[in-house]
Amino acid sequence: MGKKDPRIDAYIAKSPDFAKPILGHLREMVHEACPEVEETIKWGAPHFDHNGVLFGMAAFKQHCNFILWKAALVIGPQGNSAGGPLRDITKLSDLPPDKTLKRWLREAATLNEQGVKAPRTAKPKKELIVPRELKGALSKNKKAAAAFERFPPSHKREYAEWISDAKRADTRQRRVSAAIEWIAEGKSRNWKYEKR
């Protein structure tokens, strides 16, 4: 038998009036679909665990969200995405049919039992654009240029963005001078804050 958490009762009680029946219904559905589920609060919202996080729900001022952790595997790409069937719920009739909800929850519980991980969506990496002032200064300092080439992309990006963000030309030039000195010493942009 699953474990209920009184904090979820309190969360539902404090939610806006429109959200109370939605949250109560979702809670009921998860206990029917997966009787072994355990309730908890994570990230300030009700979550339901079964061999890992199964789903969470949250009430906002004007809508509720139902966060199925394995939605991409169970429902498909539209699962938890904006405009998907689990977002912006304002009334019970916005929810998928009970039969569908229970099926999704059972499928997600089975995936958790099998140890299947949800796929991660890789964010496209931003192209590194080195400001011309930094390029010019690096071309005049071989030691700094060699060190800059050895830096990981994150360190290169930190220097490039720091210099590019300068609004005034004199500020930009001061930053380039400091950057060349630090780069030649093999230091990252935030070297002062690194643990030694």
Structural overview:
The structure is a single chain. This protein has helices at residues 6-14, 19-33, 71-74, 98-113, 132-139, 142-150, 153-164, 169-184; strands at 38-42, 45-49, 53-59, 64-68. The protein is an alpha+beta fold. It folds into 2 domains: 6-113, Aspartate Aminotransferase, domain 1; 132-193, no CATH class. The chain has a 4-stranded antiparallel beta sheet with strand order 1-2-3-4. The two termini are 50 Å apart.
CATH topology of the largest domain: Aspartate Aminotransferase, domain 1
Task: Give the helix proportion (percent range).
Answer: 40-55%
CATH architecture assignment name of the largest domain: Alpha-Beta Complex
Low-confidence stretches: none
Name the descriptors.
single chain; 196 residues; alpha+beta; Aspartate Aminotransferase, domain 1; 2 domains; four-stranded antiparallel beta sheet; 8 helices; 45% helix; 11% strand; elongated
